[in-house]
Amino acid sequence: MHCARRLPPLHSSPSDSPTRQLYRTLEMRLLDVNTLKLHTFYGDAIPRYAILSHNWLQDDEEITFQQIQDPDTCRHKQGFRKIELLCEQAQRDDWRYAWIDTACIDKTNSSELSEAINSMFAWYRRAEVCYAYLADISDDAHKSYWNSRWWTRAWYATLKIEEYIDCRLNVGTFA
Asked: How far is CA 143 from the centre of its chain?
């Protein structure tokens, strides 16, 4: 049940195509779902990964790039739960790496933040699977599912998504 919207395979693109040029220039930091360590990859060496679409919490509750360097210091924050669930689901689905904007982008570095904003659509498209974190719905997901704040995001319209919520109920796959 892996869903994806991917860029065309690299081998099917001519060497001077925009797709190949985009792949060559991408730089991406990914979270190892087993160790919670961040790794930086470039161009063709970017491995397959899962990505998380979510609504941000209050700034002091999200896990930042700096904080994920020492996960034990931020496990008490609400945002850590998102990372835990992302990693647990990615492990179940046999992905080694995952991406979440709050922890994988150093937002204190203005040039990195600018580059990340410009690369984000490509990162979402290249992901093998996109999970949606719907923290604001109840255990009775079928009654509140469509009321989630997540649906106000523009990204969902461009993706095929596997949704999961904080209570770990797998709601299904939507195109």
From this structure: 26
DSSP helix, strand, coil percent of the chain (3-state; round to 5): 45, 20, 35
Q: Are 37 and 54 in contact (CB under 8 A)?
A: no
Question: What is the pLDDT at residue 50?
Answer: 92
What does the alpha-carbon distance between residue 55 and residue 132 come to, in Å, rounded to a whole number? Answer: 9
Count of residues for the chain?
175
Helix, strand, or coil (residue 113): helix
50 CB neighbour count, 10 Å cutoff? 28
Q: What is the torsional sign of CA 150, 3, 99, 24?
A: negative
CA nearest neighbour of 50 among 12, 19, 88: 88
Q: What is the pTM of this model?
A: 0.73
Give the pLDDT score at 41: 93
Spatial strand order of the sheet with 50-54 comes to 38-42, 27-32, 97-99, 50-54, 129-134, 161-165, 170-174
Query: In which residue ranges of the chain is pLDDT below 70?
Result: 1-25, 138-145, 153-175
Give me the pLDDT at residue 5, please.
Answer: 31
